[in-house]
Write a structure and sequence with these properties.
alpha/beta, 7 strands
């Protein structure tokens, strides 16, 4: 059984056009703090990223920010006690994986999508079994769910290689679904050997 202690959140460095996006990021950060969950995220202080991190901190929780050096100024780095600056994106993503028990994707852009899809790919290939959840706020991720279904129907996602992704439309459902998914996972199934992770 795997316990959820840290959750990596992928999300946009902008606020988006829907007020529900920022509201959901703030509510998720508050939920993490109240449940003793450490946030692992991209280290920025703006947009969705800033909202979720500030909410965790404002409610007494803990945050680990991981940011590549070339984004320090662009994403306006959050002043954190636990901040890791990496030399590149690959190292950032590897460390985010290693520091996290589960992954949540809030609304975001291409970067959010890229980080999310990488975790889904690693999971599909059997490199880890950590829960991955899409926070489908106001239907934001519905086009991706439709694309995944299309990939299955056209057999680019073949039988036996289904994408195991969780979905929550409300913030209050996120932690319960992550915990339920993690309950039956052996700890060793959530890990990638360091030498393998470096090659991915």
């Amino acid at each position: 059984m795997t316990e959820i202690r840290t959750v990596c959140v992928y999300c946009g460095s902008g606020p988006g056009t829907n007020p529900s996006f920022i509201e959901s990021a703030t509510a998720l950060g508050k939920s993490f703090a109240e449940n003793g969950i450490r946030l692992v995220y991209g280290g920025g202080s703006v947009g969705m990223m800033g909202a979720v991190a500030r909410a965790v901190l404002e409610h007494g929780g803990n945050v680990t920010g991981i940011i590549p050096d070339f984004l320090v100024k662009k994403e306006v780095m959050m002043p954190l006690k636990d901040l890791i600056v990496t030399p590149d994106m690959h190292e950032r993503k590897r460390l985010m994986f290693e520091h996290s028990d589960a992954f949540v994707a809030l609304p975001g852009g291409v970067g959010t999508l890229e980080e999310l899809v990488e975790q889904l790919t690693w999971k599909q290939l059997g490199r880890h079994a950590k829960p991955v959840l899409l926070a489908d706020i106001d239907g934001f991720w519905e086009p991706l769910f439709a694309l995944l279904k299309h990939m299955q129907e056209t057999q680019f996602i073949r039988p036996g290689f289904a994408i195991d992704v969780l979905k929550a439309e409300r913030v209050e459902d996120i932690l319960p679904r992550l915990r339920k998914a993690a309950a039956g996972i052996a700890k060793e199934a959530t890990e990638i050997a360091p030498e393998i992770a470096k090659r991915l």
